[in-house]
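Thread: Modeling a multi-component assembly for a lab meeting

Hi all, long-time lurker, first post. My supervisor asked me to bring a structural picture of a complex we are working on to next week's group meeting, and I have zero experience with this. I have the sequence lines for every component (392 residues in total). Could someone generate the structure of the whole assembly? Inputs are pasted exactly as I received them:
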Amino acid sequence: MQVAEAAMESSQARFQVLLEQNRGIVLKVAHTYCRHPEDRRDLVQEIAAQLWRAYPGYDETRSFSTWMYRIALNVAILHLRGAGYRDRHVSSLDDDALAAIPDPAPHEPDDRIRTLYGVIDRLDDLNRALMLLYLEDRSYREIAEVLGISETNVATKVNRLKQRIRNDFSDD
Amino acid sequence: MELDELKTAWTRMESRLDNAETLVLRDVRERKLDKSRSALRRVGWGQAAQILIWTLVIAIVAPFWIEHRETPHLLGAGLVLHAYGVITICLSVLQVLMIGRINYSAPVLTIQRQLAELHRFRIRTTMLLGLPWWLLWIPCTMVGAMWLFGIDLYAESPGWIHVSLAIGVAGMLLTVWLARRLADRPPSSGTLRRLIDDMASCSLPRAAREMDDLARFERE
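Re: Modeling a multi-component assembly
Sure thing. I ran the full set together rather than chain by chain. Output:
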């Protein structure tokens, strides 16, 4: 009994360390799919809960970040499609929510982040995931593994995304 | 503007990530995450409760219709409830199995396809199990009255049963008609809106579009 408890403690501690080391993944996924701070905190908690539940099945010979991206993105997309959520917060860039993010350098303009959120908000769930992974400088191979499509398909989609953004901004 | 130019903004956003959210992650131990309930887990528990309730109903109804097998209307009422219970249990078990096989660490497209299938299945189930209640309350009342008070409602007042059946059929048609009308002007309540969508079959094309979007994303 004590051995089982000790094993559980150690597993929880290991998980805590890995989560702390990779917390940026969870937070960035939450920022990509949620604008409203309260919803975002709910999503962060839900992702952490799902990671913890899935952790016993994690194969340590494989990349932790790939495993984490898959879970975080799956939970975020499900959360986005969840009850009543779409109508409340997904529609467009929320200035109040953006203002609520603490800014360590308040004198710099927010235009770039605003533009970034604007671009993200125009994308569907799956293309948001693709864009996030691309902005995170993940290899095409890892993006393909996370999304479950071929590397060629990833390359095609990234090119389309680039073209789309170019067109959107040339129209504006 | 180029996609690669947005990487600067992305890096800048990283430095502005909300402290409150970081705290949520730091408190993982205290928050007892394994006990938290996601929407999908709640659906799973709801289905489990449904299975339990209908198993109890069948345990009451089966001896009831066996006992009254000589009285056609009581036999019919019991059999209808029994059949509805079996269908409800089967559909709930299927949903629990579908939820159970969802493994979030699988590739995004695989999981989203499973979720879209579950969504479509749930819409069909809501329609299949929800609408018959316009009529189902009649055998429920008949069985309940006989089982609890020994009163045979059909023998006492067959006209009441016939009128109720007619009202039930009209109610079913009215529900579909009303739901289709309201689907164009959705109410603010999310739950009510989803229920109306399901009753009017409006959610089905949406669920089919979800599947198409996933297939397109995989193909292109």
